[in-house]
Amino acid sequence: MPPPVRTPRQAWIDAALAMLAESGPDAIRVETLATALGVTRGGFYRQFAGRQELLDAVLDTWEHRSTDEVRARIEHEGGDAGSKVRRAGLLTFSKELLPVDIAVREWSRRDPAVAARLARVDNNRMDLLRELLGAIVSDPEEVEARSLLAFSLLIGNHLIAAEHPGGTRDQVLTAAGRLLITP
After folding, report:
1. Residue range(s) defining the domain that contains residue 40
2. What would the pLDDT profile of 36-81 be if each residue is shown by its tens digit?
């Protein structure tokens, strides 16, 4: 008789990431994940020692996808610094990563370990912006200011509900982006 098919570790992590994005970290429960995956709880314990190990793996995956994979893709696809800045924003705050990012930001408000992880990710993102924008302008203060503005624009865009008379949000974002990457 063939061995039973086991739910891969990554399937548990991906389901937990989806649950985090939709309902926050408190919703990530073994029983709920098992039901969502159509498997038993026992399969979870063949992959993880407990819920905390899963939560750590979820944060590891989010961090890797949000930093390492974004950087690798930017470098692989090439282009000038301005196009790389735009691509970094689009990749970092894509429809797949943005909901998780927002959930992690909310989670970090009440969990110091998650706050430390978020700070590491944001510092990595700022380092990338400094590197890219440093190829556009040479003044270190201006590089830092543009990097902060660019990062704030990307995060704030998803938190601000203001309308833009005479234009769409996308038009305003495009114009703001041009201002940030124009020497």
Report:
1. 9-181
2. 999 988 889 999 999 999 999 999 999 999 999 999 999 999 999 9
Residue 4 has pLDDT above 70, yes or no: no
Query: For the whole model, what pTM was predicted?
Result: 0.91
Phi then psi for residue 122, to 5 deg, are: -65, -35
Rounded Cα distance, 22 and 28, in Å: 10
- How many independent structural domains does the chain possess? 1
Domain-embedded: residue 2? no
| 57 located within any domain | yes
Helices marked H in 8-165: 9-23, 30-37, 41-47, 51-63, 69-77, 81-92, 98-108, 112-133, 140-156
**CATH number for the domain including 147?**
1.10.357.10
- Determine the Cα–Cα distance for residues 89 and 111; give it in Å rounded to an integer: 26
**Residue 3 within a domain:** no
The answer to whether residue 1 scores a pLDDT higher than 60 is no
The answer to whether position 1 is within a domain reads: no
